[in-house]
Write a structure and sequence with these properties.
The protein has 12 helices and 17 strands. By secondary structure, it is α+β, with helices and mostly antiparallel strands.
């Protein structure tokens, strides 16, 4: 098995989009004579499944406040919070025999490694569709797909989960949201570290990761790994893929075809309800109702929002020419847009 690390000029790449682009590019364009292992550690990010609606999965205001990015992967499954406290591992395996859909087999080397680190085998279980459970708590969720005759699969191992960020970032704020997307199943999560043998309990994330890599590769030391080094041509293509796909708002947010949601809030000017239909991340329909008083027809505001991306800067730009007090009373554009995105707004 080859090891491909997300390193450029000898330095680890933490950007989530670049890390995913490396794997995506190799998956489609690099064909070696053995399987491939990709370890990766990212800046704080919520990684969502290929078929998920971003708005249904994340708490955007919390993510904005804490500098957490969003990244859509090319495999299915649910949303997960990742950061530099835990390492993730992806695999590119030739052929589909006995591995595609077989999550128990996919987890086998990880389970063996954890046992060697002192984790009680009786507490480890591959459970449900794609989870690895330790003492009843989820420590990993896997995903896989098949492309060009190869299985592309991966999972994270939660050594030191950031529970506060995990819970807050994966808690959407919408008052009501309805769609036909695949929703995450939010299970209780656990930490691996307390279950390690005492002599391993103080391992750094890098020491833990090197140990896991050796287990996956069947080597005694990570320096013995068989490596594929990304070329300048590889990096040029990876940079292009990163920009066009993984750093692209339309891929991360706008890919979902259609969904609807409704928000209701009590403002000092009265109660307001807004219903939106969103297609490809843009407002397709908008209806504003409530018991507020205004001098102008709210249909003008509704029309201004049609075709606008459902993100803060675009909504603010679309409404900057309006004096919303003419339509709703004393409410600012910032307050109105925060309401549309279910951020904190003044209430009575």
């Amino acid at each position: 098995m080859y090891l491909i690390e997300p390193k450029r000029d000898g330095k680890w790449v933490y950007d989530p989009g670049t890390s995913m682009a490396i794997q995506d590019y190799v998956k489609d364009h690099v064909f070696l004579d053995d399987d491939v292992l990709f370890p990766y550690m990212m800046e704080p990010v919520v990684q969502i499944g290929k078929y998920q609606n971003a708005y249904e999965e994340i708490n955007q205001p919390y993510m904005d406040e804490h500098g957490i990015k969003i990244l859509r992967r090319v495999t299915g499954g649910g949303a997960i919070y990742l950061d530099d406290r835990n390492m993730s591992f992806c695999f590119l395996m030739n052929g589909t025999n006995d591995i595609y859909g077989n999550y128990e087999r996919l987890y086998e080397p990880a389970i063996e490694a954890l046992k060697n680190l002192g984790v009680d085998e009786a507490l480890l279980e591959q459970k449900g569709r794609n989870d690895l459970v330790l003492d009843g708590k989820k420590i990993s969720g896997a995903a896989m797909t098949v492309e060009k005759g190869r299985v592309y699969a991966g999972y994270s191992l939660l050594l030191d989960p950031n529970y506060e960020a995990m819970v807050s970032a994966l808690n959407p704020n919408m008052k009501k949201i309805e769609s036909h997307g695949i929703q995450s199943v939010r299970s209780r999560v656990g930490s691996i570290r307390p279950y390690l043998a005492p002599e391993y309990r103080d391992m750094t994330v890098w020491e833990f990761s090197d140990y896991m890599i050796c287990q996956f590769l069947g080597t005694n030391d990570v320096t013995e790994a068989k490596r594929y080094e990304l070329t300048e041509e590889d990096w040029a293509n990876i940079d292009q893929l990163t920009a066009e796909k993984y750093h692209n708002w339309d891929w991360n947010y706008g890919r979902f075809q259609q969904f609807e949601y409704t928000m209701t809030e009590r403002f000092p000017v009265g109660t307001m309800t807004v219903g939106l239909t969103v297609k490809q991340g843009k407002v397709a329909e908008c209806q504003i109702t409530g018991d507020f008083f205004g001098k102008r027809d709210v249909s003008e505001v509704e029309s201004a929002l049609i075709g606008v991306r459902l993100r803060k800067e675009d909504l603010l730009a679309a409404l900057e020419r309006f004096d919303l007090s003419e339509y709703f009373g004393n409410i600012s554009i910032d307050e109105f847009v925060s309401f549309l995105l279910s951020e904190k707004v003044p209430t009575t």
